[in-house]
Amino acid sequence: MVSATTKIYLIALHTSLAGMLWGLDTGSIGPITQMDQFATSIGHLSSGVLGIYVACILLSASFSSLCSGYVADLLSRKYGILTGGVVVLLGTIISASAKNFPTLVCARLITGIGQGQSISVVTIYLCEISPQEIRGTVATMLQLLIVIGIALGYFVAYGASRIEDSLAWRTPFILEASMAAILVSGMAFMPYSPRWLVERGRVDEARAVLQKLRANSELVEEELCLIKGSLEEQSHERASYREIFQKRYVRRSVLSIFLMSFQMLSGIDAVLYYAPILFTQAGFSSQRAAFLASGVSGIISLIFTIPAQIWVDKWGRRFPLIGGGLSIAACFMAIGALYAKYGGKADGVVYLSGKGPQWAVVMLIYMFVASFSWSWAMVIKIYACEIIPTRLRAKTCAVQQLSNWLVNFTVALTAPLFLRASPSGPYFFFGSATLFTTVVCHFFMPETKGKSLEEIEDLFEMTPRAIGHSVTA
C-alpha cells in the first residue's frame, strides 16, 4: 500500500517533468547550434542570429507565464499543466522535423509558450496539494529536475554529436518530445488541486482528494475549513496589479522584482546556453571536448543544488545571497582579469594564451556554476515569494517571473555578440552586476529565517531605520 506522502512525492516527480523539459532545452540548445551537422543542414548562424534563436523561447515563455494563472483557474491546475505539455510536444516535434531556420524559430516560440504555461502552473499545483510539513521539499523538486535536465541535455548532445547526419542535432528535440508525451499522458491521471475544487464548489471531490493525499485523515475537515475561509476572505478583497506598487507595499515589491531580474544578470544562462563557446574560447579546440566540458558543468550544478535543498532553511536567506553573491562576483572578476591580461582577438575570434590561464578559466567557470547553484539558484525565488503578502502573492510573482524571463531574454540575445566582441567585458559586466546586487542585499534585505509570513510582513511594516537594525542584528 502506497502511503499518502509517497503519493505526493510521485505526483511531484511526474509534474516536475515540466522542469526537466526546460532543463533539457537549456542544456542542449547551445551544443546543438555549435554542431557541424547543424550548420550543414540549416546553415551557419552569425552571433546575432544565434542569439535571436536561443533567446526567442524566453520571450514567448515570459508572456505565456502571465496568462498561466487565468488558464489554471479556468481549466484547473492539472489541465493547465497538461495543455502546456501539449504545446511543448507540438513545438518539439516541429523542431525535430524542421528543414529550415524559420521553421526552427517558429517551433521554438511555440515551445516557449508551452513551457511558460506548464512551469508556472506546476509551482502552484505542488504548493496546493502538499501538506505544510513537506511543502518546501515538494515545491523545490521542480528546480531539482530542471538541473537534472540541464546535465542530461549536455550529455545527450555530446553523445548525439557522434552521429554523422542531421539526426545528430534532431536527437535532443526527439528526447524532449518523448518527455513531453510522458508528461501529457500522465497528467490525465493526476488529482485535481483541492483548493481549485473548493473554489468551484466541488467540496466533496476536494474532500476525497485530501483523504488520499493526507496521512492523517482526521485533519481533512480542518484543512477544508481553512481552504474555505481563505477563499472567502480573498473574495472580499480583490488584489490588483496597481496595488503591488502602492506606498505600503512598494519597497518589498521592488526588492523582489529587482532580485528576480538581477538573478539573470549574474550571467548564469550565458554560461548554460553558450557553454561550448566559453570552453572553446578557453582553449578547447575539439568540439566534442567543449561539449564534454559543458556536461561537467551540468553535473556540478546538480551536485551543489542538492545540499541547498536540504539546508536552505538552516542557512537562512542572507548568507546564501550575500556569501554566494561575493563568490559569484569573484569568479567572474577573476576570469575577466585573466582575459584582460592573457586574452585577445585574432580574425574576430577571442582567444586565451597559455595553458595555465586556460585551465584557470575553466576551473573558475566550474566554481561559478557551483556557487550559483547552492545560493542564488534556490534562495532568490523563495525569498522573493515569501516577502510578498498572501493576497498580492500571485500577481506579484507573475510580475517577478515576467521580469526574470525578459532580462534572461536580453542576456541570451546579446551574449553571443558580447562574448565574441570583447575578451574580458562580459565577465566584468556580470561580475559587477552581481556585486551590486550583493550590496543591495546587505543593506536592504532583512533576514526571514525562522519567521512566519505574518512576522515577515511586520519586518516590512517597520521604518527603514528599524529594518536596518533588524538586518544587521
Query: What overall geometry do the principal axes of the alpha carbons give?
Result: globular
- The unreliable regions are 463-473
Mean pLDDT: 85
Radius of gyration: 23 Å
**Helix run count:** 24
The helix/strand series, from N terminus to C terminus, equals HHHHHHHHHHHHHHHHHHEEHHHHHH
N-end to C-end Cα span: 49 Å
Helix content: over 70%
Trace the largest sheet across and list its strands. 1-2
Structural class: mainly alpha
Strand segment tally: 2
Percent strand: under 5%
Largest sheet geometry = 2 strands, antiparallel
In short:
Helix content is 81%, strand content 2%. The chain is an all-alpha fold and 473 residues long.
